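Summarise what follows for lecture notes:
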Amino acid sequence: MPFPRFRERSIIVALASLVLLPAIASSQSAVISGHVTAAASGEPLPESRVVVIGTTLFASTNATGQYTIRGVPAGTFEIRVLRVGYAEQKKPITLSAGQNGTLDFAMATVVVKLQEVVTTATGEQRRVELGNNVANIDAATRTQNAPVTDVASLLVGQAAGVQVMPGNTTGTGARIRIRGTNSLSLVNDPIYIIDGVRMTSPNGSQSGNIFTGGAIQSRAQDINPDEIENIEIVKGPSAATLYGTDAANGVIVITTKRGRAGATQYNVFGEEGAIHDYNTWPTAYTLLGHTAAAPTTPIRCTLSTVSAGTCLSDSLAKFNLFKDPFTTPLGTGSRKNAGLQVSGGSDVVRFFTSGEYEDEIGVLKIPEFDVRRLDTTGVNILQEWRQPNEMTRSTMRANLNATPSPKLDLAISSGFIHLMTRLPQSDNNALGLLSNGFGGPGFANPGPGYTDVST
C-alpha cells in the first residue's frame, strides 16, 4: 500500500528536521567568555552585568568573576560591563560562524554620588522628591577655600536669587534678601533655623542702630562660620508653607558640624592681618575772592555773591579731609582669629567641640588734630575714642550624638557666644572742620568735630 508508506516517510523526515535544525544553528553561533576583575587589586568582581550591545544577550559573573554568553551570532559587536562602584567599560569583538571569543575586563573604581538629602521642617527628604527649589551650600568646604569671616561671606554669590549687602564697618551686619524686597514697610529679612531651632535675628532699630550713622547689627553675625557644616536656602511660597508666615522672606537652614566615627581629629587654625580703607573720597572745593572795596581781604565766594557782583573770585581752594594725615579719621585696622576643633568618636557615641576667639579693630580713629587739642586742654583720651570701631567675639560649641540602639538616636547641641561690639557714634558736629571752611580761620580752629566719639 503506497499511501501509508509515503505518510511514514514524511513523519520520519519531519522528526529528523526538528532534531538537526538546533544542531545546525548551534554550530553557526558563537560563545563569548572571560573574567571581570578590579583594576587596582585584581580581585574578581561577582554580579557584574555583561551585555552584548544591540541584542538581548547578557550574562552575570559568578563568584570567581567569570561569565559566559552563548548563542552569539556571527558579526562585530560591542560588549559592555556594568557594576556599581566601577566605571562602565566597553570592548569590541568580531566573531565568525562557530567561533568562540574571549574578553577580559579590568574595572576601575569611581566615586558614587548618593542622592542628596534636604532637611526641612517636615524632616529629611530626597531632593528629587521636593516640589520646590532649595539651594545647598557646602559651608565646611567654602570656609577652607575662601576668605570667610561671617555668615554673609558664606552666602555671597552662592545661590540664585539671594542678594547679600555686607556691612561696611567692623561689627555691622549684612542685609540679606531672598528674591528681592517683598515689602516697603515691613521686615524683609529671612529667618534662620540652626539645628532645628529658630534663631532671633532682627535688623534695623531693634538691633541698636540708633546714633550709629545707619550702621546696623544682626544676630546672624554672631554665628561662627567655622562651626557650620551646611547651609540650605528655602525660597518662595514653600518657605511659608513649611515654616509659617514669618518665613515669607525665605528661610536659611544652618546645620552645624558633627563628629564622625573614627580616630580623633584635631584642627587648629589662626590668622592675623591688617585692614585698610581703599575707597576714593571726594575732594571739597571752595571759591575764594574779594570785594571791590577791600581787594586785599580774602573772602569766600558763593555762586549767588559772584552773580550779584559782590564777590570777585580770584582763586580756588581744595581740601580732602581723608587724605590729610592731620585731619583724617581713617587709620589702619587689624584682625586676629584663633580657634581649635576636636571631633571623633565611635559608632555608639560621636562628638564635636569647637572654640574660637576673634578680635577685629576697624579703620576709624580719632583724628590727630583732636588728639592734640584734647592734650592741650588736659582731657584724658579714652581707649574707645582712639578705637571707636571694634568687635571681639568668643564662641564655643559642643555637639554630641549617641546611638544606644538601632531604633534610638540621641543628639545634643549646645553653643555659647560672647560678643562685644563698639560702633562709632554719629555726631552732628562731625564735619565741624568743613563748616569752618578752609583757606581761612577753619584751618587754625578745626571746630568740635569728632570729639563725641563713644561706645
